[in-house]
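Morning, I've got a small favour to ask if you have a moment. You're getting the sequence in one-letter code plus the fold written as tokens. Thanks so much in advance, here it is:

===
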Amino acid sequence: MTDQTSPSVFRPEIPGFTAAPPEIPENKFAEEALARHKREGLELAVRARIIAMAIIAVLVLWIVPWPSALFYEVIIAIFVLIGLAQRRYGRVGQNRIELVLLFCDLLLLLIAAIVPNPFDDRSWPLPFQYQFDTFLNFFVILAIATLAYSWRTIIAVGTWTFAMWMIALAAVAYFADQPGQMRAAVLALYPDGNPMAEFLDPTNVLLSSRITEAVTFLIVAVTLAISVRRFNNLTLRQAAVERERANLARYFSPNVVEELSNNDDPLKQIRTQDIAVLFVDIVGFTTFAAERSPEAVITTLREFHGRMEACVFQHHGTLDKYLGDGLMATFGTPSPGPKDAVNALKAAQSMAMVVEDWNRERAQASEPPIIASFGLHFGPVVVGDIGANRLEYAVIGNTVNVASRLEALSRPLGVRIVASEALVIEAKAQGATAAVEDLHTAPPQNIRGIDGKMAVWTQT
């Protein structure tokens, strides 16, 4: 039925019952969580109903003689059909069909409890029907309802059952035959007013017991409704957490989001560690942008960034920042791993292949190719949060500067990938034999910020 955050909240129209307004704002994660909870709950409810009805059907055949059992077996089959219909039409939000089916559940169970069995040739006084304790079956329906319905609907089930049971009790008391020979036979054994006489009288509905049953059922229904409401709130809070993680993932890499989610402190203390740094840039993008509309430029950048970002995440990297037509990624942050240099090198090579595939698509659309360059370095950096109230995870150090300058070096060298010897040595130590085989040594280069010439490796 209706869940706590659904747009149209069902409020049972029961005297004295007023449903509280929604307490948690709507969002797509809450709606998806409630819809998923509803589907799973309905499936469990139908399975539980089928199992419960099968058990009851066997018990009926054992307890009730044939053909009297046929009446109850037909009712059990109808219960199963109603459950299948509820699974068919059940959804989050106001649903009149589902509400009618739920009412049919209760009405059918009431009929089974108090209507004389047409297949039973034995003559039972109508009040004696209550002696069969069929009211206990309402608890089965209530338990199944907790699997699929909102807390408000469970309260409605309790309230409706209480009202229907009291109405049926009054009807039975009104239409029942007047006490006759059976009551006289009981009074012959026990004096009038003796509790045993009241209990054994087949024309007595035992009013106090019937009211106690109904009140107990209502108390249990309210208690279960409170439990279901708490569970729904937990589901909504979990949906809120998923929403927050999804929002974080729009701005941070998955591993940073995971680190933020699993630690009370933002991202641990500032520290120094060895990581791999990758810079990516589009060669000649200034000229490219000058010849196209702003919309076309942004579209191209989004497509490029999306492809490069996917490669970073695929190789367990962290997207540090976008740099206009390029980006910076780190491998080994927030926490270092055993394959950081390998992952960085494989990410760069994967990016180069992705750009080649993209250029084939662009050629079919008569678009000019995109030329991307990559620079990689491995070494010590300072990592940690900077800022006061608004924190930013920062990677600082000469390793970052060198990686950026290696990327710029790709142009005069006429290659796509330039990697420092430090990264290649570390990648070899981490077992990147195949990835390193695609690299070739180049003459040592002067790199600003580095004393002497640096040995570099390249890939065309």
